[in-house]
Structure formats: structure tokens, C-alpha cells
Design brief:
280 residues, globular, alpha/beta
Amino acid sequence: MELIPITIEDWKMDSGACFGVIPKSLWSKVYPEQPDNMLMLTNRSLLIRQSDRLILIDTGYGSKQHDKYYQYKYLFNQKGIEAALEEKSITCNDITDVILTHLHDDHVGGASKRDEEGIVDLFPNATYWVSSAQWSWAKSPNKRESAAFFPENHTVLENSNRLIKVEKNGEYIPGIEFRIYNGHTEGQIIPIIDYNGKKVVFTADFIPSSAHIPLVYIASVDIKPLEVLEEKEAFLEEAYRNRYLLFFEHDFYHETCKIEKTERGYKAIFHNTLLANTTE
């Protein structure tokens, strides 16, 4: 197995949305602030190369929406998933599986594109994986989350006849466990990868950055913050005891970390790269 980080694009988000009720005097100590009260984020995907499969986790924003929409997201360093893959000498046709942690636009938008025929899925040879709970949730969104769900991101995947809806936790791809969490959005899949005898966890929006490791640092966009608190506390204890490596999808400054436990709670222990962490 080979793990290949893929940076698709960078963007900015309002600092209040990132850290909820945590005051700026605290979160600014762990995540740098920009002058405009925005925080720099990234969309970092992960490729998993196996002997007979090439698996992609999440796809970034894509480019299907109107320009004004992306202006609100403050995108910069925008490559898109196709160009990001090409940098690794990989084409969309090479991808055998696409794991969609959930169906918010910054995670699924890049799985399809507009061409002269309309909207088409970008990975014609891939099986798409999403939880059944998230699929139902996105098809009938609540008013709070509706701005993050776009029907054109979902319908094209269903029409591909290559969509598998996951009902429960389990190992659906050899060496990759799907763990389902519901605090950020209903039915978010968190992939846990068995890599050279160690566990690498693609944290998606469950723990979007290393700054969100403290238990009460919870984004205001999470739909069930108290459930996030419970989910995160149980997971961080597991990650600490088993020396899991956390791989961050949105942390602009840190790709990975391990977890240490102190008298004041859990904290991140940083190394340089994904490979540096997994070879310890």
C-alpha cells in the first residue's frame, strides 16, 4: 500500500464558524489569524494505492457553480482535482474507488464537472462510496445545512450506477475501515487505514484541523455539537492508546499528528510528513 497526499485547493473561512463559542483570545494561540478575521484552510485529499486499486478520499469544491459562489469561499491556489492528480501522473480514469466522507460541497463538488453534455461524473471507472444516512440527509437537507448540499453533486453519482451506500461501520475495502460519525453531519464516514501495521485516520470534518483536538473546540457548522464532544472524546482516547496517525483534510499548516494525553487534556504531537509519522 502507498499513501499519497493530494492538495486540491486552499480557501478561507470566517474564524467564528471554525471555532464556535471559543473566544479569539484562545483559538488564535493555536491557529494563525488573517487580518480580515478569516482563517486559511485547505482541501487535502488522500490517494491510497493498492496492488489492484487506486482509492481517492474526497474531491474538493470542483468548478460547477457560478464564479460568485466561489468568491464567497475565498479560494486561492486552486488546482482542481484533475490537475492535482496529474501532478502525481494519475488520471481520473485510473481511480477505482472514491470514498466520499460526506456530501458537503467542499468534499463532493469535484467528483463531477460540466461539459457540453451537461454534468458528468469525473471518475468513469470508479465505485463511489457514501453512507446511506448521509445520502438521505443530503437529499432532504435541513435548512441549516441546505446551502452546503447541491443536487447536481449527488444526482450524477446515483445515475452512474456505481454508487454504494454504506449502512454501518465495517471494512468495505481491504485495509480500510469505514467509521460513521454523526455530530458534524448525519452519517459522515471517517476512513481508518491499516498502513504498514499502523492506523492512519482521515479525519475529514470530524476533526478538521489540529487546532480542533481540544474537546470543546468545535466548529459552529457542526449540527450536533454535544454529540461531537462525545464522539471526539471517545475517539481521541482510542487514538492516544493505539498511536493512531491523524491526517487532516483542512489544516493549512499541519498535514498529520499523533495524540498525546496530558493533565490538561489531549494535544497534538507534530512531525513533518505523513511518511515520517508512519515509519516510527
